[in-house]
Design goal:
Mean pLDDT: 85
Number of helices: 9
Distance between the termini: 25 Å
Low-confidence stretches: none
Number of strands: 2
CATH topology: TerB-like
Helix content: 55-70%
CATH class: Mainly Alpha
Order of helices and strands: EEHHHHHHHHH
Pfam families: TerB (PF05099)
Protein name: Co-chaperone DjlA N-terminal domain-containing protein
InterPro entries: DjlA_N, TerB-like
Structural class: mainly alpha
C-alpha cells in the first residue's frame, strides 16, 4: 500500500506495527507460559520433548536427512527459545526420552502434537516445514508428514497452507 505526499511521491502506508511486548525473555519458561495462558499438557510429553520430537521426525520424514536439513536443525537449535532453554546434557536426555517413547508408542507423534499449547502449534508447523524445505523441495513423504501434523495439531488447512506457502517462497532462493 502506498499514499502520495504533497510532492506526489509515494510513501508506504504502514502494514506492520512494532511488537507490543519487547520485554520477552530470551529463554523459554514453561512455568511462565502455563501461568500466562492457563496451559495444561494433554499428555505426559513436556513442551521441549514434544518440540524436539516434531523437529527430528520432520527431518527424517523421507528417510533421508540431507546436509541442508542438518544445517537448518542446527540453526533452529541456536535461535529457538524452546531449544535454547535446554543445555546440552539435558538435550541429550530429551533425545533419549523422545527416542524411547517413539519406539514404544505407535501414537507418539500424535501425543507430541497434542502436548503443545495451541498458540505454539502454528510455529512448530513452520519450523518443521522450514526444515523439510531446506533442500529446496518437498518429497511425497514430507508432504504426508506435514498433512499428518496439521491434523494432529488441530490447525485449519488454510492456515497450514498459508504457513507452508510462505516458507516455500522463502526457501526458493
Amino acid at each position: 500500500m502506498t499514499a502520495r505526499d504533497e510532492t506526489g511521491a509515494r510513501d508506504p502506508l504502514p502494514v506492520f506495527e512494532p511488537a507490543a511486548d519487547r520485554s520477552v525473555h530470551p529463554t523459554f519458561d514453561v512455568r511462565e507460559l502455563a501461568q500466562r495462558t492457563g496451559y495444561r499438557p494433554a499428555t505426559d510429553w513436556t513442551i521441549p520433548e514434544a518440540f524436539l520430537c516434531l523437529i527430528l521426525l520432520a527431518a527424517a520424514a523421507d528417510g533421508f536427512v540431507p546436509p541442508e536439513e542438518h544445517m537448518e536443525i542446527r540453526a533452529l537449535a541456536r535461535r529457538s527459545r524452546v531449544l535454547k532453554s535446554v543445555d546440552l546434557p539435558h538435550l541429550a536426555q530429551l533425545n533419549r526420552i523422545v527416542s524411547e517413547r517413539l519406539k514404544h508408542r505407535p501414537e507418539g507423534l500424535r501425543e507430541a502434537c497434542e502436548a503443545l499449547p495451541a498458540d505454539m502449534r502454528p510455529s512448530i508447523l513452520a519450523h518443521c516445514a522450514d526444515i523439510l524445505l531446506a533442500d529446496g523441495g518437498l518429497a511425497p513423504a514430507e508432504a504426508e508428514f506435514l498433512n499428518r501434523i496439521t491434523a494432529y495439531l488441530g490447525l485449519r488447512d488454510e492456515d497450514a497452507r498459508s504457513i507452508v506457502e510462505v516458507l516455500m517462497v522463502k526457501n526458493r532462493y
